[in-house]
User: Fold this.
Amino acid sequence: MSPRAQVYIIAGLLALMGAGLTIYKNIELGFPLLPGEYRTVWTIEAKVRFTADDGPVKAALTLPREQRNMEVLNESFSSSGYGFNIVSEDDEYRAVWSRRSAFGPQSLFYQLDVHQTPGAALEQPLDLSTQVQKPFLGAREQEAVRLAIYSLVDSARERSSDTETFTTQLLIALGDSRNQDRNLIFGYYKDRSLVDVALVVLSAAEIPAHRIRGLYLEDDRRRLDPEDLLEVYDGERWVVFEPHSGLPGVPKKFFIWQRGGKSLLDVEGGRNSRVTFSVISNDVPAREVAMRSTSREKEALVDFSIYSLPIEQQSIFKLILLVPVGTLVVVLLRVFVGIRTSGTFMPVLLAVAFIETRLFTGLSIFVLILVLGLWVRFYLSRLNLLLVARIAAVVVAVVILMGAISVVSYKLGIEQALTVTFFPMIILAWTIERMSIVWEEDGPYEVVVQAGGSLLVAVLAWWVMTNRYVEHWTFNFPELLLVLLGLILIVGNYTGFRLGELMRFRQLVR
Amino acid sequence: MGQVSISQIFGKLRGGFVSPLLLRRMGVLGMNARNVNYIARYNDRDKFPVVDDKLSTKRAAARYGIAVPDLIAAFDTQPSRRRVMEVIEPLWQFVIKPARGSGGKGILVIAGRNGDKYVKTSGAEVTALDILRHVSNIHSGLYSLGGKPDRVMVEALVDFDPVFDNYSFEGVPDIRVIVFRGFPVMAMLRCSTHASDGKANLHQGAVGVGIDLASGRSCHAVQRGLRVSQHPDTQMPFGELVVPGWRDLVRLAASCYEMTGLGYLGCDIVLDRKRGPLLLEANARPGLAIQIANGVGLRKRLQHIESLDVEQLEKNVEERVAYSMNQFAAKGSD
Assistant:
């Protein structure tokens, strides 16, 4: 196979691999393709309060299960002096706090961060009981209530075609304060909620049903009591109903805490136990959400990547990952334009320095150091030093210049110039040395051409490297470097003319 | 007013460029095509040291019977600086150059003495201290590729054939021949001018004179990209220029193919009064200015050689030279 074909095949494979990984990370892991995407993360805090009876205490709180439309990013608990563990019983998770002796009011906290993933349907658990316990309505004084319940069931059944519409009709009737039957029932079950009553009526109609406890996610809500939804088995699957509207489906932004099962909170050894919730929303960069949601699954792509590094190293890598983009700029300008620079990749290092110093400060400092350095170097050349010693002397001179620039500009109130330290000193010294040789051999014009070319390329590289999209892509999708590599390989195969040559060879055409 | 100047700039910009299609049709070889299609394909990396180190070039040239300027001495280490002075002390004329320099950088030519001072070809004088510093710079690798420590060569100054005296100002003319797979394909003479400060670099203002491969006569001359008919300093017309012993010179260039094993090669040759053509250095990455000097593109000639069959490629030096002279003779009288 010809080398050319190999280049195209390798470049194609690299590009495919990079693009594939990027798409996977975007679609499956939720890494945002564009910078500045924010997701809402809800922090929900459950506060358990009770008054302890000066003895052993055990409090158990049912915890939310994994749900498809809500992603739990993080959970934490706080309970000073209490032992804490999470136990799983009957497909349910419960947080258990325990203590040998406690007295007086107690507060225990359980906190979790949730991210709502749009569009995902509610998961159907397999092992919810569909057994129906008929309500005990035998006593004489309950005759009226019983009749009212069956009348409600009958009228709802008449106006419905299946379990779903039946439940809706029933809930509408239960919400209608003009309905005599309904008023009678509520008059009897004085301290029961709508969902409690609905459960009784549904069991009378022999329809399996249970309650769902949860919270409406709204920002900055405190001391919320859990709200109830109704879930009804229609013979094939469980359907959720909002009790007040009677409409099927989980309402938007409803976070399900507990589904069926037993009580939400059990406290042994305490009185007046109560659980309240508070909710806050935070707008968090989408990348962070993606990072946190994948961290528990330990996605290899994320785990074996720069995200596993400490934050400090990550910020260094943020810069390092931009270097290939700079080299691409150099390659493009060299191959397609033919700009002469001093030191092939020196402009990239300059651009990296410009990122730290801001462009105009960087440019002026660079020119200043170059001019002063050349001046020092011309004097040094009269002293007949060995080359390495002379460059070392230039390095020292450059360091002193940097210090002087920093101090003087600081005194003048220009704090920007303090970033002078980001310039690579050794590179600067070598550049000065090379420039002075160019000056001696090819004249000052060539120095201006080369320094100008270097600066032009550096500014262009800086411009590309500080583009927020480029920054976002290189850091969040480092696999795009494979695409970049493929691109460089293809550019390396270009045998057409450079822009400069169109001018250089113009005399040949006439 | 403003509009006029803008349209003028625009016109100038467009006039400054030519269409790449036109250049292609002219058979002009670009830098990228040279790098990918010729240097990468025909010049094996392991053969580069022979040409990149002038001492190796000299050694190889001796083995293949190719004439080169005499080597007086070569020095390896920094402490030998004193020995350098001892060597050049009795010499009247000499050249100091780095073994691994590129693009003619770091070459110091001393053409005479003036008391304690050494006189350069340009007439400028340097002191012994300046020479010592130059030697030290070479040793430290200032002129070598990649800044590696380098060796210093002291070479005898070529006794230039006076035939070019009127075509060169303050400097030495040399002849560059491009040899592709052993076939000479194009040649030019580089004449220094006052503007080029005695240097033979075309981009510094030296005159590039295209030489007809068949006859050794000049066929085209260019300074700074513009066609000229006479030397800007001496006013000598290039039309009368003929390189003496042209066939020998081309043969010498062609035989560098066997010596270096490089498929795409530039040979820099000077003419010595007594010894004839001498190989100054060989270059594995010869530049493309030769096309401008000749007013002809290289690509067609290279492609012609590439299209030859194996049997033709196995010709000996003499046959290759004859083939090229016949094939690449300048057409017409310009």
In short: DSSP finds twelve helices and 13 strands in chain B. The longest strand of chain B covers residues 183-191.
